[in-house]
Amino acid sequence: MLKLIFFIISSKNIYSNIYKKCIKLIKYFKKMKDIPLPTKRRLVLLERLLSGYKEKNITSQKIQELTGWTSAVVRRDISALKLNCGATNGYKVEELKSHLEKMFGEKKESLRCCIVGLGRMGQALLDTSELYDSPFKIVAGFDSSVNKTEVLSSSFPLHPTTLMKKIIREEEISYAILTVDSDEAQPLTDLLIDCGIKGIVNYTPCVLKVPSEVPIENVSLLTALETLAIN
Fold first, then answer.
1. Between 189 and 228, where is the model more confident?
2. Averaged over 35-45, what is the pLDDT?
3. What contacts 24+ positions apart, CB below 8 Å, involve 29-34?
4. How many CB atoms lie within 10 A of CB 133?
5. What CATH number did the domain enclosing 73 receive?
6. Beta pairing, strands 57-58 & 91-92
7. d(CA 188, CA 116)
8. Which residues 6+ apart lie within 8 Å of 175 measured at CB?
9. Do 91 and 196 share a domain, yes or no?
10. From start to end of the chain, where are the E strands?
């Protein structure tokens, strides 16, 4: 009987600790959602930078030298990670990397993506070498031209857009890379949303209408150049 009581108490303690850790993580990730998008983008780049950094510590001044961001911006961005270490002698690289890994924690798992549109841009993206050693994996491509899906060579299956809903759900695809013509952009975006896609990288020139809970990254050479010209 005593052994049973001890086991029950121990189990309760174990599950209580697990529960507390889960609550702590949930609160942490809720805070991460409040981080401004420009800060998130810089932190993504910082994570890449630190992956090849050999020193034990790194200062905001050093990050400024390596990235061109001001020290003030660096310190403000890093403060969003809720680090419990001072920055007097620089940040501990391993601790900084650990917090960044927590921030992008869901990237530990394979994130399945698809390309929608196999024109020149879509075909260029069939080379997935840029995603090597990343958690992102392109598992399908789609195009309204059946001929393209049959003729083009790819390391992953290519399908007509008529099969999008079926394939996206079967393959549990989370993210879409949209490279279609302007007249197809919004209808296919609506279909992607209906399929449960969590986010879209938009290579089209269109301003797409999406629900607030579905993030969209607009990638445009013209927009980038115009932004640089304004600055």
1. 189
2. 86
3. 29/105, 31/82, 32/103
4. 6
5. 1.10.10.10
6. antiparallel
7. 8
8. 111, 112, 113, 114, 136, 197, 198, 199, 200, 201
9. no
10. 57-58, 91-92, 111-116, 136-143, 158-160, 175-178, 199-202, 216-218
149-167, pLDDT tens digit by residue? 999 999 999 999 999 999 9
Q: If we measure between CA atoms, which residue out of 174, 147, 143, 176 comes closest to residue 160?
A: 143
Residue 118 has pLDDT above 60, yes or no: yes
Per-residue pLDDT tens for 84-99?
655 567 899 999 988 8
How many helices and strands, by DSSP H and E, does the chain display? 10, 8
Specify the pTM: 0.69
Q: Is the same domain home to 223 and 141?
A: yes
- What is the percentage of the chain residues whose pLDDT exceeds 70? 81
The whole-angstrom separation of Cα 137 and Cα 211 is 24
**Does residue 174 surpass a pLDDT of 90?**
yes
The CA distance from 159 to 167, in Å, is: 8
Three-class DSSP category at 128 = coil
DSSP helix/strand/coil, 2? helix
Characterize the bridge pairing of strands 216-218 and 199-202: parallel
The answer to whether residue 12 is domain-embedded is: no
Surface-to-core class of residue 108, CB atoms within 10 Å of its CB (0-12 exposed, 13-18 middle, 19+ buried): exposed
Q: What is the dihedral of CA 21, 24, 28, 31, to 10 degrees?
A: 160
Average pLDDT over residues 102-126: 84
